[in-house]
Amino acid sequence: MCRGTVPAMRRLALFLTALVLAQPATAQTVTPLAEQVETILSLAPAGTRFGVLVTDDAGREVLAINPDQRFIPASNTKLFTTAAALDAMTSDPLNAEAKGATTLALVPASGLPDVVLIGGGAALSTAGDCIRRCLGGLVSGIAMKVRKVGNVIADDTAFADQRWSPGMSWNNIVTDSGTAASALVIDDNELPLTVAPGQAGQAGVIAVSPYFEVQNQVVTVAQGETKLAYDRAVGSRNLRVFGTIRTDALPWRERLGIDDPADYAGWTLREGLVARGVKVAGKIIVRHRALRGAGSVAAQPQQRVPNFALAVMPAPLDEEVAAINKPSQNLHAEVLLRRLGLIADAKNLTGPATGEPGSLESGLAALRATLAKAGIARTAYDFSDGSGMSTYNRISPRAAVGLLTWGKGQPWGQTWRSSFPIGGVDGTLKRRFAGTPLQGKVWAKTGTLNATNALSGYVQGASGREMAFSILANDVPDDASAVPIIDAVLLAVAAAN
Fold it and tell me: Which domain holds residue 208?
């Protein structure tokens, strides 16, 4: 979204909110809900296509507009991924956690022992204040055992080497929104980039991990505007940062995606060993597992029995689901989908070949199995990833509401709901619905992608009764947004019920 559209969006949001809240209280003069909503939708950017379905707590339709048409759901996809994971993993949490463990081992080799980091999907941290799932703790454990090692091996073969999903826009790959999926996850497989002003006429000051080779083309200017950007070829560590930054500008911050998380993990591990006084005599070796085709069983590298090993379990499932849905974290959703493909019981899978364990295909097969169990028509959805970054994904509002209605009644339903952003309170809804009658009364997943906005979840109406809803907007033109329209529709629905 270009900055110039933000004030216009805010004005539109305020206008629409006022329009909804100004409805007269007398029943005989209240505009029918369908008419109110049509008026609101008519204010959307020309060409925008909407799908809406709202049902009450008895399952009756409150509002339906194109409820069976299919739309790009953006991050509403995460609702489906997390529901499927909860349904499959909650009944056997110890097995699910064990299969997601990441291990650092000291293994015998000819000569010096090798250090091997084997990923299972557990997200590790290198933060200085890390207290759980810390890579530094693992490395310190190795450093206490040995002072010289051979090779440093980073192994992410638990998952097939499918770093990006079909249908994801190429321009997202270098950003934190599109960082590569892997069984090895360190600092969410992203790195911070900071650009600060230097002296006028001189280069800007760039701070980024030495993992990247920086080409600094930033110029500090006394006048004009700060306008910065970066680019990097896929598969390259060469990072070009360019543009201008004013002398009085605050530091400019971005987060960069990593193309090969196993390579980065090996590099980080080697740096950590050296920093702790361990001499690394060998080289960094990366192990991937190439996808061999649906239904095949991929050969695994022969694992040597370790002399010493430390393991880190993944976050508990409720924490992981909240870490996905509240801030709309893409990488964790993709990793969870692949973990789902590893642990799903084969006899529960339906449809075509389920793919190799730990592959995108096996995760999607498990997802389809959950949706069949929920009674959602196969024609109501298609998925190509677990996060919603793929433009190939499709859902209907009826599919989303069906999932919400079914999920609410499952043993894990409250855990799932607790992971949703809350209007005006937290997550990606922290600034939406604040100061309106729906503050604290909307529990919903947002979705934003090119020409797409979405919101699906639960809302409490004026009567106190709760409704399930899905509002999807596609084909939003130019740099416009349908978010103010979506929020106004939900305010109108809640006010009328």
Answer: 173-178+186-257
Examine the domain organization and report whether 230 and 279 are in the same domain: no
- Asked if residue 19 is part of any domain, the answer here is yes
345 contact partners, CB below 8 Å, separation of at least 6: 88
For 42, residues 6+ apart whose C-beta sits below 8 A from its C-beta are: none
442 and 382 in one domain? yes
Q: Is residue 249 part of a domain?
A: yes
Do 309 and 338 belong to one domain?
A: no
Query: Is the whole-model pTM more than 0.85?
Result: yes
Q: What CA–CA distance (Å, rounded) separates 137 from 462?
A: 51
Do 146 and 284 lie in one domain? The reply is: yes
Tens-of-pLDDT digits for all 497 residues of the chain?
333 344 455 556 655 665 566 554 444 455 799 999 999 999 999 999 999 999 999 999 999 999 999 999 999 999 999 999 999 998 777 677 778 999 999 999 888 999 999 999 999 999 999 999 999 999 999 999 999 999 999 999 999 999 999 999 988 999 999 999 999 999 999 999 999 999 999 999 999 999 999 999 999 999 999 999 999 999 999 999 999 999 999 999 999 999 999 999 999 999 999 999 999 999 999 999 998 764 444 455 556 777 788 999 999 999 999 999 999 999 999 999 999 998 874 444 444 446 788 999 999 999 999 999 999 999 999 999 999 999 999 999 999 999 999 999 999 999 999 999 999 999 999 999 999 999 999 999 999 999 999 999 999 999 999 999 999 999 999 889 999 999 999 999 999 99
Domain count, the chain: 3
136 & 153 share domain: yes
Phi-psi region of 47 (alpha: psi -120 to 50; beta: other; left: phi over 0): left
Q: Is residue 96 part of a domain?
A: no
Q: In this structure, how many other beta carbons lie within 10 angstroms of the beta carbon of residue 216?
A: 15
* Residue linked to tokens 């507009």: 65
